Write the structure tokens for this entry.
Amino acid sequence: MSTIINILEILIILVPILMTVAFVTIAERKIMAAMQRRCGPNAVGVWGILQPFADALKLLVKEIIIPRQSNSLLFIIGPCITLIFALLGWAIIPFGDGLAIFDYELGIFFALAVSSLGSYGILISGWAANSKYAFMGAIRSTAQLLSYELVFSSIVLILILFSGSFSLTYIVECQQAIWNIFPLMPICLMFFIAILAETNRAPFDLPEAESELVAGFMTEHSASIFVFFFLGEYSSLILMSTFMAVFFLGGHHCPDLHRILIDPFIFIYNYLEFKVPFPFILIYQSLIYKFTSLSNYYTSSNYEIDNISSLNDNNTNAYVFSQYFNNDIYYYSQYTNKDTILSSLNILMDKIQGSYILGFKIIIVVFFFIWVRASFPRLRYDQLMSLCWKELLPLVFAYILFTVCLFYTFDMMPFGITF
Amino acid sequence: MIDVEVVETKSNNYFPLLLFLLLSFVVVFKKINLNFFNSFLNNKETKIHINNKNSVLFNLDNNELAINVLNNNSILNNTNINISDKIILEKENIPNKVYSSFPVENYILEKEYDQADNINLLVENAYRDNNYLLITPNWDSALNRITQISSIGDVLYSVYHSYIYIVSIILLLGLIGAIILTADNNQEVKIVTVKNNKMSYFFPLALILKKIKIYANIKELYYLYFSKYNNKIYSSAKTKTATMFTSISVVPFIIDYSKIHSEDILANLLYFIIANIIVGLLLLLINSYFSLSVKYLEKGGGFECGFTSFFQTRERFNIIFYRVSLLFLVFDLEIILAFPYTAIYQKSQNISKNNVLAFLYILIVGFIYELKEGALNIVKKAHNTELK
């Protein structure tokens, strides 16, 4: 029975991902068309919505051409590796509070490992094709992925410093009060650049620069092997934008209406009283929220609500705290003292809502990907490398030192225990 | 293929780095002094209660930590890490496992909890008499996998800090060696410098100096802002020097890992991997079943525009790619060695922070060398071209 449930869980995640890939391609073509003042695909289905399925069908009927000079086994295995590792990263993504296939405490290490193993697929397939263009594309791509992997992992290090844990669930829970994008705005921008380069997207699509190398490492690939690359590339795009949503945009948490209503008054009060410039207030107010809300982390599902309601009588601290910060459990327990079923249903509904919210955020980030592609011209390769090694890496390293020092000087230690 | 590439070098590429370094020194300065004197003034006496189950509970006078050492039954006991923990315990009184941490001024930890299901009750008790910090031995089995990182961090940055220095110097040598070994001396490169004289660097400096003033303001703001809540939460309000968390964070977070960590979840991952492979195979099978294949000689050749290619295969490539991968190794090791510190920095003493900073500073020397050397300037066939 448990195995059937496991398989169902996996299908619930895997099938929508593959569908999303299809719809992201059509979305990209449509949005690009709108930005260039032409109508995109509009023949197949309503508004051309079935176009990606037609493309997939076409590609699946085509012939698999394996060049004579190539190493045929590696030629097929390479794309498979790319696809598998692009899909494997989805295992640790929390779609709700603890709703993940593999809710792992060292989830970040898992993510880093999977994303860096993906570059093997490109290298292998580019080498095995034994063609000039494929080989150069593969080498370019590998160097690019390696160097932006550094930026990615050091930004992740900053995030761990901020939240105090290696698990993605915890990092999301830390953003209950304020999303990481507000205190870590520059880092967020750098992260976006890094994931653009990690997914080989424009303006960093040097490996497949059409004018120099025909199609980069996938020059010789055709039919379903090409589909592997295609699927892998787009699913890693969506995965990376999910990381963006989880790390910086608060994951499955919705902005708190209660706080949005109160905050402006506090800002104005601070401004009038202390003459602190407005943008600085925004940043430091957000820092304060961050560190006060950290202790609120609480996994609802593992705890019986009866106990908490009894706690509330004796402990006014939690009550006061919950009133302001609107902690879910305390919030529910006030109204449903005995009806545990009802409150647990509420929590479940919250979890399901969370996944919708996460999806909405992912869509926004994906739109940004497409927007960037439509707006910016391609970089030169040395510009790409110097951007990584000379501009981004020094800044991120300096930021690591800076955050550590900042925490020590102001005694702002996040309390994480899950490592 | 590109024939000519002009390398633009700005004269101050590593300026932001230096700026932040300077800033970090300024920010730390005050704190270092305080800690230096505090270490002489407060000689904290730690009382250690040892149960039958070998769970050690610290009773610190001033800190906000309660500590539990793992069971004898746990897997960690068989590894070296636990031994190193004991070394630390003897030498520096560093807490080695933190299971729950929330600041309560006076705590007592003397109750023994044997049963596995009592976590909820424990929390309740802890709330009733605001003095209990609860630690259960059940957490050990769940946290085995995780705690290794923090214990590595404990060892690496406190007792064995000399080794970290040695490692950093080795990495530095590796970085410089990689650059020197892969240097292409035959290349005649003329680097054209394009200077930006638009912006002076004093402007951002002035901005940052302003910022530092604002930091000070913000801290006062913080106390003002939360003072009303503080009064309600803590009737026994402490002195002004109390940290933020002693006054505010009260609600503990409890994660019952015994429930989360079932074998089903691991099985889930396995199924997921298998499902991914099946997706790939399915696509291949469908394709090979439905597609036609007509083969002739030209079709199997390598890609070229309209003619059969003369020499396609296994060409030499620029050494810069090799150098990039070597530098990546060094930097990745550096980041990985910094990861254990993130696991312990909340509870760590001043020593470990200084060690980490020293480690990073030594490597930043290498980084600056690399930038100054122009190690990653990609130049292919540089002709004598100049920009005016």
